[in-house]
């Protein structure tokens, strides 16, 4: 039986340091964990004053009379511009929250439905990609309802250890990443080495250099030993169908399970998925796809992946029941969220909007895949 976790903070984060008791009974939520926390007042003020730094503050977590201890710090990049931040939560060694010692408490600032992460993980998992565990949680701040968050597993060494998956190297892409040296790329500006933690990006730099120099007609020979090209095309196809606007130069990892294997992609961070204000069309743009689609075989593979996704993966009979079940689970929490239900945002309407847009994307690709042709040499 799921245990109800509560965390308490002495003030409404991002708004004021005054204690305000919320009359809404978030503590009565039964289908998701409620988070309450205690942070020392002076450290809480420091956190509010240092949203752009990695200021780390102690936090006490209480669950059914027991206490977990850990730290909180601001998490993410774009989300720090918003009233609601995301957090990295790290518990003391040996302690876990829903099986996770370290996790993100994600505000999902671009997703009023809180369904996009579920949609993405369903699709990418069906396509054979690594995905992460996540859990809806309701964050309370000093007995005031703060909102519906997702507790998200981080792609770090414990992710691989928990699943018995070998990892030799893990590279995280930053905002606006370029996969080319044409503009004098500085690797450390765009990429961060997560595993091993040694700041050595030489292997990834060799991949980018090979991509720059590759003859499009011999792309598999020139680059295939450094990048799993079919797997990358599958990722790019899925991200394009899902309009994962940040998934081409930002929200992705490159990993290798051994030093002699090519890089493969791990998708990440989905709250801006299906983002209607920005339509990526038939393919999101980055240096990798621009080079690969100068090759006829890559064009054929890309189109095959698109057809598979829209015909076999993004099928209403398969996807919609999963979304509906999750929506039912979070509905009460969504209603109590001051930025969602209490601000007039209806979960049913948001869910239908997401489904409608997904079907529009599916129809758009069905009608236009045939128009994709080999890109001209650059």
Task: Report a brief summary of the structure.
The protein is 34% helix and 19% strand. It is of the alpha+beta class and 378 residues long. It is globular and about 65 Å long.
| Largest β-sheet summary | 9 strands, mixed
Count of separate structural domains: 2
Low-confidence stretches: 1-20
What is the 3D form? globular
Record field, number of beta strands: 13
User: What are the secondary-structure elements, in order, as H or E?
Assistant: EEEHEEEEHEEHEHEHHHEEHHHH
Oligomer: single chain
Give the amount of beta strand, in percent: 15-25%
Content-based structural category: alpha+beta
- Percent helix, as a range, is 25-40%
What's the Cα radius of gyration? 22 Å
Protein model, in words:
The protein has helices at 41-49, 116-126, 157-163, 187-190, 202-213, 219-223, 229-241, 287-292, 296-313, 316-336, 347-368, and strands at 6-7, 33-35, 37-38, 56-63, 66-75, 86-91, 102-106, 134-141, 144-153, 169-173, 191-195, 252-256, 264-267. The chain has two domains: 6-107 and 131-153, no CATH class; 165-312 and 362-371, no CATH class. 34% of the residues lie in helices and 19% in strands. Strands 1, 2, 3, 4, 5, 6, 7, 8 and 9 form a nine-stranded mixed sheet that branches. It is globular, with a radius of gyration of 22 Å. It is built from eleven helices and 13 strands. The longest helix is centred in the C-terminal third of the chain and has 22 residues, at 347-368. It is α+β, with helices and mostly antiparallel strands and 378 residues long.
């Amino acid at each position: 039986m799921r245990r109800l976790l509560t965390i308490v903070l002495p003030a409404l984060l991002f708004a004021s340091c005054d204690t305000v008791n919320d009359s809404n009974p978030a503590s009565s939520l039964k289908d998701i964990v409620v988070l309450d926390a205690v942070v020392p007042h002076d450290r809480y003020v420091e956190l509010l004053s240092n949203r752009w730094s990695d200021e780390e503050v102690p936090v006490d977590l209480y669950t059914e009379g027991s206490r977990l201890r850990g730290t909180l710090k601001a998490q993410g990049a774009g989300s720090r511009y918003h009233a609601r931040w995301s957090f990295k939560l790290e518990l003391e060694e040996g302690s876990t929250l829903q099986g996770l010692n370290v996790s993100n408490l994600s505000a999902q600032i671009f997703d009023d439905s809180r369904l996009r992460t579920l949609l993405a993980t369903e699709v990418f998992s069906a396509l054979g990609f690594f995905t992460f565990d996540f859990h809806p949680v309701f964050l309370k701040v000093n007995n005031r309802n703060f909102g519906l968050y997702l507790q998200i597993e981080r792609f770090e060494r414990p992710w691989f250890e928990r699943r018995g998956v070998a990892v030799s190297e893990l590279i995280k892409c930053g905002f606006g990443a370029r996969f080319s040296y044409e503009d004098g790329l500085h690797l450390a500006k765009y990429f961060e080495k997560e595993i091993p933690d040694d700041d050595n990006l030489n292997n990834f730099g060799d991949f980018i250099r090979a991509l720059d120099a590759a003859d499009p007609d011999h792309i598999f020979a020139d680059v295939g030993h450094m990048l799993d090209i079919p797997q990358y095309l599958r990722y790019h196809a899925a991200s394009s169908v899902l309009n994962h606007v940040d998934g081409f130069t930002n929200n992705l990892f490159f990993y290798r399970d051994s030093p002699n294997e090519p890089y493969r992609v791990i998708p990440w961070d989905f709250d801006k998925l299906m983002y209607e204000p920005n339509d990526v069309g038939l393919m999101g743009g980055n240096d990798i796809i621009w080079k690969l689609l100068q090759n006829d075989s890559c064009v054929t593979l890309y189109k095959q992946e698109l057809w598979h996704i829209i015909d076999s993966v993004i099928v209403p009979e398969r996807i919609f029941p999963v979304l509906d079940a999750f929506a039912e689970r979070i509905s009460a929490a969504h209603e109590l969220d001051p930025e969602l239900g209490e601000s007039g945002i209806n979960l049913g309407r948001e869910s239908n909007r997401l489904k409608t847009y997904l079907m529009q994307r599916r129809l758009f690709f069905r009608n236009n895949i045939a128009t994709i042709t080999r890109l001209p040499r650059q």
